[in-house]
Design brief:
Layout: H1 2-13, E1 17-20, H2 26-38, E2 42-46, H3 49-58, E3 68-70, H4 78-89, H5 96-102, H6 106-115, E4 121-124, H7 130-141, E5 151-157, E6 168-172, H8 182-200, E7 205-209, H9 220-235, E8 240-245, H10 247-251, H11 253-259, E9 271-273, H12 277-290, E10 294-301, E11 307-309, H13 316-338
Parallel strand pairs: 1-2, 1-4, 2-3, 4-11, 6-9, 7-8, 7-9
Antiparallel strand pairs: 5-6, 5-10
Length: 339
């Protein structure tokens, strides 16, 4: 896919340090070896050095020698990270002893590295649940300014080239927040637009989806989307966001012109925001399975720094691609800070 090639090339041109807390996991090691060989990112693997080297040697992987390997049982910044975690969480009741113990947990170490400026992003989830990946991220890295909710987007590479960017659309939220409020849905919309800018390189046309278009149906679920649209437009006036729109009105120019005349988004949406996780998750899986689309994600949105969650059934290619995506998110985040 051309876009993934572009994402990888952008990562190569501005290398970021990505930490992989599941450093002794086979797919992670294989992906790290290839990432280093391709010069996509600087890699930190968290895990026992001897175990990582043994696994790498077993597969004939030679590039792992160029990775930074951090042993969670014995590393130079253990005291620094312990103190950092304690300061961040003492108001919540964390003791110094508890912080010291958690500073030996690879998922906590990865987030502490990012918070301390020692890494730019993290990929995990090949062995851990989404909850385990998100917990330290929310405690340490926290959400981005103005954002209170984390969401999960998918890049959907469909066969329908007439929609989005040659068939590419961003779907959200398909992974994290089950029943967002109107305010949360608005934040998800803006975050999804930022994902489109950072990864797709396109100006987002964000459609707030519903079973109603511009008042064609009356229901409290429609009201939530209408309210969310207004809030999202206020959150980022520079972004084209419109709703409520049915899926056909969002995607098909003739339908959009008929159902929502004058809309800047109707008929040309490239970001689809679903009213609930239930709808988003069902939609992306149907498009993937029945429509033959390639789904890349979930890409976690709303964090102050990139932390992406893998499926435990992920492939080596999935890990590789998500590292490149995290690098692009980090590049975009740094650019936004400068601006």
């Amino acid at each position: 896919m051309e876009l993934l090639k572009q994402i990888i090339e952008r990562a190569k041109a501005n290398k970021q340090r990505i930490v992989l807390p599941e450093g002794t996991e086979e797919r992670t090691i294989k992906a790290a070896d290839q990432l280093i060989a391709d010069n996509v990112a600087d890699i930190t693997l968290i895990g026992n050095k001897a175990e990582i080297e043994k696994i790498a040697a077993g597969f004939g992987l030679k590039n792992i020698a160029k990775a930074e390997i951090l042993d969670p049982a014995n590393y130079d910044k253990k005291e620094d990270y312990t103190n950092l975690l304690f300061e961040l969480r003492k108001a919540k009741g964390m003791t110094l002893e508890q912080a010291s113990k958690l500073a030996e947990d690879p998922l906590y170490i990865g987030c502490l590295m990012i918070k301390n400026g020692d890494a730019d992003g993290e990929i995990a989830g090949a062995r851990n649940t989404t909850g385990n990946v998100l917990r330290p991220a929310l405690q340490i890295i926290k959400t981005a300014p103005g954002i209170s909710v984390v969401s999960g987007a998918f890049l959907m590479f469909t066969q329908a080239k007439e929609y989005g960017k040659d068939g590419l659309l961003v779907f959200a939220d398909c992974a994290v927040t089950p029943d967002p409020s109107a305010a949360q849905l608005a934040e998800i919309a803006v975050a999804s637009g930022h994902t489109a800018r950072a990864l797709v390189g396109e100006e987002p046309q964000v459609a707030m989806l519903s079973f109603s278009t511009k008042g064609s149906a009356k229901h409290e679920m429609v009201d939530k989307v209408v309210e969310a649209t207004k809030i999202a437009q206020q959150l980022d006036p520079t972004m084209n966001i419109d709703g409520e729109l049915q899926a056909d009105a969002a995607l098909v120019p003739s339908v959009g012109a008929s159902k929502a005349p004058g809309s800047k988004v109707a008929g040309k949406a490239n970001v689809l925001v679903f009213p609930s996780l239930e709808v988003g998750n069902i939609a992306y899986k149907l498009v993937q399975r029945l429509g033959g689309a390639e789904a890349v994600g979930p890409i976690l949105q709303g964090m102050a720094a990139p932390v992406n969650d893998l499926s435990r059934g992920c492939s080596v290619t999935d890990v590789y691609n998500m590292v490149a995506i995290a690098a692009n998110q980090a590049i975009a985040a740094k650019k936004n800070k400068k601006n």
